[in-house]
Write a structure and sequence with these properties.
Blueprint: E1 5-8, H1 14-25, H2 44-56, H3 60-67, E2 72-77, E3 80-87, E4 95-100, H4 114-118, E5 131-136, H5 154-167, E6 173-177, H6 180-191, E7 196-201, H7 218-228, H8 238-244, H9 246-255, H10 257-270, H11 278-281, H12 284-297, H13 305-308, E8 323-326, H14 332-338, E9 343-346, H15 358-361, H16 363-375
């Protein structure tokens, strides 16, 4: 088995960037359907403006260089080439932390979070607690090989993450993630509870379902009713869509950058609690860097395996082997349900943020919350081990 860890650098051929701009220029635009705002999907006028900025104003090379400021590597695990960022902190007692991104996102999700985590002193943090960060690209996303057969699960990916942290020389570490990462972060703890210090997610533990309704009090039923009215609970069911015909939809996303951009914006808009379009909530260039990465690596289809390799949707249950915490805990109903399957030690309800992708929305606040959570568990940390890369 080849266990080598090889340096990696993003270097997209100029011909690929030229082709992207040419395809954007040749877009065949539809008419706007009747309806207000986003009621029929991404508005044509909004998408035209953003696509034109992508073609003429957005600078991929600038953001490629920013990503290349992070040390990057690849290694082969379970027959898969795995791409990852590995950024060591200048702080000698830094805690190793494994970050897992979500869907439809990538390591770009953490581009503004890594600095505050690895070097808090340079980012105005009062505490010196820092992290050594490992942030892999999930198989099928960006520069990590796509699954070559059906049947992939978060448990299989979690096993890859365990081996990755072993190769990096970390006997103990924390895990964090949101969206897909909220499933993978606790799954790692299930596999190696003796190695994982704690599990921190953006949110997702304890979300109530219809099966929980009979156990709810009157106040909890009111909270459940409010949840059902949320925009992100009533948008396009991407789990059902990608479970049904992922190959069919991939043709459009793989062939048309505007189709891919529209799909990403649809989801980023539904994932927001703010009454504003996605690029007014999150950084416009960061959104386009993420979309560009999907386009330039051709991974709009392969990144959908968590949906098309599943039979139904369920919220992340978590685990009881190690302590867990969340960035945004939600009302008491959520915590009560979360504690059925987790050892909850951190449940703040007032943290800032208005978007599902918290690391893009409020990276400094998320970094501060991670420091708060892991400071409670810091006595469990063993030496972080040698830096392999």
């Amino acid at each position: 088995m080849n266990t080598d860890i090889r340096p990696f650098r993003i270097d997209i051929p100029q011909a690929d960037l030229d082709e992207l701009r040419a395809r954007l220029a040749r877009t065949r635009w539809p008419a706007q359907l009747p309806g207000d705002g986003w009621s029929r999907g991404v508005p044509v006028g909004y998408l035209k403006e953003l696509a034109e900025y992508w073609r003429t104003g957005y600078d991929w090379r600038e953001h490629e260089a920013e990503l290349n400021e992070f040390d990057q590597y690849t290694t082969e695990i379970d027959g898969q080439r795995v791409h990852f960022l590995h950024v060591r902190s200048p702080e000698p007692d830094a805690m190793p932390l494994l970050l897992t991104h979500g869907w439809p996102n990538s390591i770009v999700e953490f581009s503004k979070l890594i600095g505050p985590l690895t070097d808090p002193r340079a980012h105005g943090a009062e505490e010196a607690q820092a992290f050594h960060v490992a942030a892999p690209s999930v198989p099928g996303f960006a520069f990590s090989d796509p699954p070559r057969e059906t049947g992939w699960t978060v448990t299989r990916v979690a096993g890859i993450w365990v081996e990755l942290m072993h190769r990096l020389g970390y006997p103990r570490y924390g895990t964090h993630g949101g969206d897909l990462g909220a499933y993978l972060a606790p799954e790692v703890a299930k596999l190696v509870p003796e190695q994982v210090i704690g599990v921190h997610i953006n949110g997702g533990f304890g979300f109530p379902t219809e099966q929980d309704v009979p156990t709810m009090t009157e106040d909890e039923l009111a909270e459940y009713a409010k949840l059902q009215d949320q925009n992100w609970m009533n948008g396009v069911d991407h789990h059902a869509l990608l479970r049904a015909a992922p190959q069919t939809f991939e043709y459009g996303w793989h062939d048309s950058p505007v189709a891919l951009l529209a799909w990403m914006l649809q989801k980023f808009n539904e994932f927001s609690l703010a009454a504003a379009p996605p690029d007014q909530v999150l950084d416009r260039d960061q959104i386009l860097t993420n979309v560009s990465l999907y386009w330039l690596t051709g991974t709009s289809g392969s990144s959908s395996w968590p949906m098309y390799d599943s039979s139904s949707f369920a919220w992340p249950a978590g685990q009881t082997a190690v302590p867990s915490g969340v960035y945004s805990g939600g009302p008491a109903l959520f915590r009560r349900l979360a504690e059925r399957d987790n050892t909850i030690v951190h449940w703040p309800e007032g943290n800032p943020g208005s978007h599902h992708f918290v690391a893009m929305d409020v990276p400094d606040a998320l970094a501060a919350d991670l420091r708060t959570f892991f400071s409670k568990l810091r006595q469990a940390v063993l030496p972080s081990g040698p830096a392999t890369t």
